[in-house]
Amino acid sequence: MATLTQFRPGEIWPDDHGVHINAHGGGILVHQGIFYWFGEHKVEGKLGNSAQVGVHVYSSRDLYNWRDEGIALRVEDSPDSDITRGCVLERPKVIYNARTSKFVMWFHLELKGRGYSASRSGVAISDHVTGPYQFIRSLRPNAGILPMNEASRSVDPLNEAESARMASKRWSEGRSDFPVDLIFRRDFPGGQMARDMTLFVDDDSTAYHVFASEENATLNIAELSEDYTTHTGRYFRVFPREFNEAPALFKHSGRYYMFSSDCTGWAPNPGRVAVADSIWGPWTHLGNPCRGEPEQTATTFESQSTHVLPIPGPVPGQLGKFIYMGDRWRPDNAIDGRYIWLPIEWENDAPVIRWHDHWDMRVLA
Ligand code: DGJ
């Protein structure tokens, strides 16, 4: 294989065997100077929108050339397994826990045959970065626990009229009357819904699980336990009724930034970015991070965010260089999904992205 020396967003991206990289909705872990890209392994056709194989992992030293390291987490054959073949397993992210020396993977899990209604989080661990990862459990986070920023919120069970409203096909006329309070109370005993997600590890090694909750209307930021395999119960509701998917969090100069998208299924929409001085907020909108033609900014260059990669410097995070990673989904032939990686530039302390047909790391220098 010819050595690659550039990123070519949206084009076929061959791995070390010349095969288009198969790691959608992915994220990158940097471990001992090597980049590991984990993502959804998709198969051909619409079948590829469900998990037929599992989570694929690739390694690289230069971010252009990726070696196929195989399947890190496999779907299971047993129909009783939560991760049985045909479930929906999306947006896997892996972090390393130095205390336990384990690699910990979290992902969005939908139980087979239930559409997107299960809205669970799956967790798997391994002693080796490339796996095999062992599935531990799936759950809905923070069952019976109130968010830190709304500790006196009502948790009353739904009354008859409220239950009838939730059971009806139509809950709301639109976003302004979307019943987030009812959804929160409905889900309180069993745990909040968790769909699109990411992980973020702060400088003090505390890890956070960020996910779209309440039928996608509200983001939750939830602290993970010291071993990263469960939640501590400390969590925040962010941007209720604003419908954010595709969260990707990073830190720069002591501030937290979060890319996200609107909720339009597989179709792209205008990207969003927000900032906060504390991970617990308050979070402030910075608008659409895309710069370019109207059709580019309206579709985030035909992509949806999945991760923001900090380029490692001598001190982690100190370089202040970041790469936006997004997916250009192809739901009719899922395996053909493309990767949109673009350099992040700074405009008045706000991260922005512009289109490049091709670019290399010198752009970030
Ligand atoms: C958008 C999400 O970001 C994707 O991960 C996936 O869940 C699709 N919706 C499904 O329509």
What does this structure look like?
The chain is mainly beta. It has a single domain (24-364), classed as Tachylectin-2, Chain A (5 Propeller), CATH 2.115.10.20. The chain contains 3 helices and 21 strands. It has helices spanning 160-167, 180-187, 294-297, and strands at 24-31, 34-41, 54-60, 67-74, 88-97, 102-110, 120-126, 134-139, 197-201, 207-213, 218-224, 231-238, 245-252, 255-261, 272-276, 284-287, 290-291, 304-310, 322-328, 338-347, 350-354. The protein has a 5-stranded mixed sheet, with no helix packed on it. The chain has a 4-stranded antiparallel sheet with strand order 1-2-3-4, with no helix packed on it. The chain is globular, with a radius of gyration of 20 Å. The structure holds (2R,3S,4R,5S)-2-(hydroxymethyl)piperidine-3,4,5-triol. (2R,3S,4R,5S)-2-(hydroxymethyl)piperidine-3,4,5-triol binds at residues 25, 90-91, 196, 245-246, 265-266, 304.
Label the CATH architecture: 5 Propeller
Count of β-strands: 21
Give the class-level CATH name: Mainly Beta
| Ligands | (2R,3S,4R,5S)-2-(hydroxymethyl)piperidine-3,4,5-triol
- Let me know the CATH homologous superfamily: Glycosyl hydrolase domain, family 43
- Order of strands side by side in the largest beta sheet? 17-21-20-19-18
List keywords for this structure.
Tachylectin-2, Chain A, 5-stranded mixed β-sheet, mainly beta, 3 helices, 4-stranded antiparallel β-sheet, 40% strand, globular, 365 residues, binds (2R,3S,4R,5S)-2-(hydroxymethyl)piperidine-3,4,5-triol, 5% helix
